[in-house]
């Protein structure tokens, strides 16, 4: 008899509040409407804790009026002074009305938006080497001045 592997479990890694600047609109390109959103800082709390260093960005492609590809790159500095490079790729989708409200800087109930991602981490820290060798999932919520993410270790 063949048995299936145990379904993975999720373990909360961190809540991340990402402070963002005004979007830099690139315009309609062959790949879609492109924009870059500067990451100006933020906080990280949980099993992983520290701050987000300024200088990262979220490189977005708005595919339709309801669907956006996200690809953020930034650096976390832990409370112990270690640095962790983050690449967070995902999608955000919702009704045309809700997405238009987000685009105009208006708050939208996060439960009305599907915002999921898969963060990847790279670090030289021996203490945090397990970040290099595991997979993670993320949920997100977009607010006018920030993005709130919850990252989960896939066990």
Reconstruct the topology from this structure.
Layout lengths: L9 E11 L3 E6 L2 E15 L3 E3 L3 E9 L2 E12 L4 E11 L2 H8 L10 E10 L12 E8 L2 E9 L1
Antiparallel strand pairs: 1-3, 1-10, 2-3, 3-4, 3-5, 4-6, 5-6, 6-7, 7-8, 8-9, 9-10
Overall pLDDT level = 95
CATH arch. level architecture: Beta Barrel
Shape: globular
CATH class equals Mainly Beta
**What does the oligomeric state look like here?**
single chain
Main sheet, how many strands, which sense, barrel?
Answer: 10 strands, antiparallel
Protein name: UPF0311 protein H0A62_11295
Family: Belongs to the UPF0311 family.
Pfam families: DUF3237
Organism: Pollutimonas harenae
Q: Care to describe what's here?
A:
- This protein has 155 residues and is mainly beta.
- It has one domain: Porin.
- Helix content is 5%, strand content 61%.
- The protein is built from 1 helix and 10 strands, in the order βββββββαβββ.
- Strands 1, 2, 3, 4, 5, 6, 7, 8, 9 and 10 form a 10-stranded antiparallel sheet that branches.
- The chain is globular.
- The two termini are 25 Å apart.
- The mean pLDDT is 95.
